[in-house]
Design brief:
Layout lengths: L7 H6 L4 H4 L5 H15 L4 E5 L6 E9 L5 E9 L6 E7 L14 H4 L3 E5 L39 H17 L4 E11 L1 H12 L5 E5 L6 H7 L5 H10 L4 H8 L4 H5 L6 E6 L7 H10 L5 E6 L11 H12 L3
Parallel strand pairs: 4-5, 4-6, 6-7, 7-8, 8-9
Antiparallel strand pairs: 1-2, 2-3, 3-5
Helix pairs in contact: 3-5, 5-6
Amino acid sequence: MALFDLPTDQLQAYAPGPDEVGEAPDHDEFWATTLAGARDLATVPERTRVPTGLRAVDSYDVTFSGFGGHPVRAWLTLPAGAEGPLPTVVQYNGYGGGRGLPTEHLFWANAGYAHLFMDSRGQGSSWGNGGDTPDPVGHGPASPGQMTRGILDPHEHYLRRLQTDAVLAVDAARAMPEVDGTRIVVTGGSQGGGLALAAAGLAEGLAGVMADVPFLCHFRRAVDLTDAFPYQEIVQYLSVNRGHEEQAFRTLAYFDGVTHARRATAPLLTSAALRDMVCPPSTIYAAFNAYAGTDKEIVVWPWNGHEGGGGHMAPRQLAWLAERVPA
């Protein structure tokens, strides 16, 4: 795939302001109210040991309270016999995938970290090995997928629920006896990277953020720049629902990774691929350049698409964490 976005020097300087992203004046109030309401409904997380036949890790099926008190599933994976307190990685999944099987989530526990992998409500049927968390909230007319569910009202939009779940997953991790609540890092790729940025801007006391080729950044530029899905769900919706453009982008602005990044201070490791048509590099640089923390690094993959660094990011993440949140 050819290069299609801004030249590298312009990417490095690309920093759209709050007005260009459409930041809402009540963004902070909206999220403070949302999270307070969700926490008021939260109950103590429940977990059950899952026999996997593996000797190096202990796996648990976790259920915690997300948005609206709705049950959200997760896998907790610990180094075998660990009592803690352990540094912990909370991980979010890519778009369309579910939490899959416990035996798929072994990397971080084998590196000495506790690992909580959150299921994505209403997803899990596009790839991978399935999800276990329904989204019980209805919505108005929408295109297939998640991006336009409730798009005319930020209080009803799907991402309000999913990003709230991401923050409460951090709360759930802190409730685990093996977890050191002062050493929690959030991570994910694509949608998972976008959720990591949301958690970075909304959750308190994070020790690090690792957001690979993050989705959900600078919605307006993304839909104007790429023909790829999932951003094209928004275009598809607007092509049918003419006249909804202003309200749609006003809604999406509450969930934009650029706006969340302006409020995030934990150390950040992110990445961008210059041939990525799914999450265009300028949208990622917009979030990176807006990120309020000063300890931040972006890894650039000039020859890759949305796969980014793939498995090559893992050793970089381990080295980066070893300096900041050692196991």
